[in-house]
Design a protein that fits this description.
By secondary structure, this protein is an alpha+beta fold. It has six helices and eleven strands. The two termini are 15 Å apart.
Length: 317
Amino acid sequence: MRLKHLLIIAFVVVSAAPMFLGLQYLNGQFGQYTRQLFSENLSALSLIAKQRLLGAVDRIRDTTSLVASRTQLRQNMANWNRTHDTAYADDIARIILDAREGLTLLKEISVYDRQSSLVASTSSAPMPWKLESDQVFKESVYLTQDGPDVIATSVAPLVFDNKVTGYVRLAFKTTFITELVQQRAGLGETGEWLFAVRHESGDALFAVPLKYDQTAAFQRRVAKDRLDVPITQAMLGNEIVMSFAPDYLERPVLASTRYLSELDWGLVAKINEDEVASLVNRNQKLIYIAELSIIVLAIFAGVGLSFFIAKPIEKLR
């Protein structure tokens, strides 16, 4: 074998082989780094969404407190309990109609006595309501279904002379939730928001239409023992990022879970693993192209350098 051939082999091995191994390692690390970026992005998006929901619920509570704190409303309710005079019921109806003015997201205001019997309402067909034991002395916000719509219901006691005289219930349109789940910026082509409340059985009950199931609101459930599903982890209060976890359609997803403890609501931001893998592979292809180009350049440089060194030596021989 001639000297220049030996030099070509030596230069190619010395220059290209370490570079090839290094780029292969870089490729693997880049794939992990890309997945980590996806995870951090999902976690940040879900945290922002959680804060938005909590802010909206705080505004609902503030509005409910303002209505419940009206002195004339509380006083008329106390008089109604004592006399059951319809004049007091008419005054209550006038007060809540006045309170409803200017609140565009408010669907109705209804007032009930201590036995949860309807006294007055701003709606001709008020939503049904029954007093629960845990609503006696505290405010509560929960989601209910009213036909095709999802309604946020807020209840507060009416207190007069340190006694509960009745309850006021406000029903709000949930545009703050529907707008959130419909805005999928940062979630790619397959990503979506999942929003659930707790069913009486303990299962996670989806409270909004889903991207791949428009009839899911208060219909589709995920069993509480499906600990591998992100929405179940959210309802358990675990705020984590899950990889290759099955979603409600049993497809593997990358998901970030959030829990709103005061409301017992679960929130999930997720994207299909197929899309994550596609984006990772696309970036890896660019590295492979760069890797191949560098190796080709190294081979040409090694061949040229070998000829340059071997030529004068061969002349001496």
